[in-house]
Design goal:
Layout: H1 3-8, E1 13-14, H2 17-27, E2 34-38, H3 46-49, E3 55-60, H4 63-73, E4 79-83, E5 95-98, H5 105-112, E6 119-125, H6 126-132, H7 141-149, E7 150-158, E8 163-164, E9 171-178, H8 184-194, H9 201-207, H10 223-232
Helix pairs in contact: 7-8, 7-10, 8-10
């Protein structure tokens, strides 16, 4: 994958050892934990994750970065290095840690919402973190999914100068603690609701061939109320 393609995909590599250590510390890894890292990148997090974990699985979709990781880290006994799309494989883990490309943030939240684990530490674009926490008129489908599935805590703000190449925006490290799991069918249903977000609940339901008497709009409802409607549809 070329440098220009990485930039188009929002791939900016963390270069701050201080921030990397904060990410790993916030995961609170124990000798009983299996850690899954999607996006090995240059490997700034990988050896730190291995210090306290029972085992670490790291996967990289860029062939050249994967090859570099094999050369650098293959002698770490508790580490398994994989090549491919991390969201497309079935791995059991207790802790998820990742500095994902910005383009993969939404996919990561929806994927994590369907998994069973102890905690996840993810770095996302600051604006995306704000979208996850949005309420009222600013609410999105991903806001509802995130609120339904996780307790979300902001760990640290990461300025653009901590990356190579530097992105145009700042980032935020988030800690996600699971509350409830969600299925892909329910995720799809929530997203279909929000494709008609300007309509009243009654009119949205009517478009699905259902009858729900409500003049409210999605922005006026709680997360649980939206999920309840999505399940009905």
């Amino acid at each position: 994958m070329s440098k220009n393609r990485r930039q188009r995909l929002g791939q900016h590599f963390l270069k701050s050892q201080n921030i990397a250590q904060k990410i790993v510390d916030s995961a609170q890894i124990t000798p009983q934990d299996t850690v899954f890292e999607i996006g090995t990148g240059p490997g700034i997090l990988t050896p730190l994750l291995c210090e306290n974990a029972k085992s670490v699985i790291t996967i990289e979709a860029d062939e050249s970065l994967y090859s570099d990781a094999i050369l650098k880290f293959s002698k770490i006994p508790k580490l398994e290095i994989m090549y491919g799309d991390g969201f497309g494989i079935d791995v059991d883990f207790t802790i998820f840690v990742s500095n994902l490309p910005y383009s993969e943030s939404k996919r990561a939240i929806e994927w994590l919402g369907q998994k069973k684990f102890k905690c996840a530490i993810v770095m996302v674009q600051k604006e995306f973190a704000e979208k996850l926490a949005a309420k009222g008129r600013n609410i999105h489908a991903i806001s509802v999914i995130a609120d339904y599935c996780f307790d979300i805590k902001k760990i640290v703000k990461v300025g653009k100068s901590n990356f190579s190449p530097p992105p145009k925006v700042d980032s935020v490290v988030l800690r996600l603690t699971p509350k409830k799991q969600i299925g892909q069918e329910l995720i799809d249903s929530v997203e279909k609701l929000f494709s008609q977000r300007r309509k009243t609940i009654s009119n949205i339901a009517k478009s699905f061939g259902k009858s729900i008497q409500s003049d409210k709009r999605l922005e006026e409802l709680s997360t649980d109320e939206i999920i309840k409607i999505a399940k009905q549809l």
